[in-house]
Design a protein that fits this description.
The chain is α/β, with parallel strands linked by helices. Strands 1-2-3-4-5-6-7-8 form an eight-stranded parallel beta sheet. Helices cover 38% and strands 16% of the residues. It has a single domain, classed as Metal-dependent hydrolases (TIM Barrel). Strand 2, helix 2 and strand 3 form a beta-alpha-beta unit.
């Protein structure tokens, strides 16, 4: 059995303090591949270096919607950075109306540039969406995000929103949130989502799943999320591990298992 953590921030403290130990702990829990996701330009070289120097680690390039000081991100810069062979996706990008206030036109403009870059680079998008479901899905449709496709990372919405994303060809990725007692609507999504559109992630160091809720999250804990989803769906952990791993390598096609060596 092998699992993939399809979205983590192993460059963030405290995880970045000892990445070798972190990845060994993940391997002990059958987690063998990792997508380390970029959130800004200043830290992108470190994210890229992790992918260059650690077996099984891949990188993305993008600027998080809450990174206000980097509103000038260009399509050209994203596409150029995406030429690196260990960069397998554009993002994370999207809309976040929870942490940002005022006129958020700059956020929508940046999201549009990320979609354009993904289309030009022919790489999938990693989409962050918080308190902005309607605008996010509308922009995805308007700017033809269905062409490169991608994933709704750390999905926390209900089934109608999931259905709209699925209709655009996107995958749904579940984090530790799905294990929380309060996440009944999200658990319904996990039961209903087609097997070939499902991913699992940690978003570490955040959102540790039960039974580690409240602790610093790490890639090893994605096993708990996968096991919880397996129980929800009446499937085995092996089945969920296999399908989410297959989905990861199909969606992020540059991240072949052979390229992880």
């Amino acid at each position: 059995m092998e699992l993939v953590d399809s979205h983590c921030h192993i460059d963030f403290p405290p995880l970045g303090d000892d990445v070798d130990a972190l990845l060994r702990a993940a391997g002990d829990n059958d987690v063998r591949h990792f997508l380390c996701v970029s959130v800004n330009w200043r830290d992108f070289p470190a994210v890229r270096a992790l992918a260059e120097t650690h077996r099984g680690v891949f990188a993305s390039v993008g600027v998080h919607p809450n990174e206000r000081e980097e509103a000038e991100t260009s399509v050209e810069a994203l596409v150029e950075a995406a030429r690196h062979p260990r960069v397998v996706a554009i993002g994370e990008t999207g809309l976040d109306y929870f942490r940002s206030e005022g006129d958020l036109g700059w956020q929508r403009d940046r999201f549009a540039r990320h979609i354009a870059a993904a289309r030009e680079a022919s790489l999938p998008l990693i989409i962050h969406m918080r308190d902005a479901a309607d605008d996010t899905i509308d922009m995805m449709r308007e700017h033809r995000a269905d062409e490169p496709g991608g994933v709704m990372h750390c999905f926390a919405e209900d089934w109608p929103v999931a259905r709209r994303a699925l209709d655009l060809g996107f995958h749904i990725s579940f984090s530790g949130i799905v294990t929380f007692n309060s996440a009944r609507a999200l658990q319904e999504v996990a039961r209903k989502v087609p097997a070939d559109r499902m991913l699992v992630e940690t978003d570490s160091p955040y959102l540790a799943p039960v039974p580690n809720r409240g602790k610093t999250n790490q890639p090893a804990f994605v096993r708990h999320t996968a096991a919880f989803i397996a129980e929800l769906r009446g499937e085995s952990l092996d089945e969920v591990a296999q399908v989410t791993t297959d989905n990861f390598f199909r969606l992020f096609s540059r991240a072949t298992p052979e390229a992880a060596a």
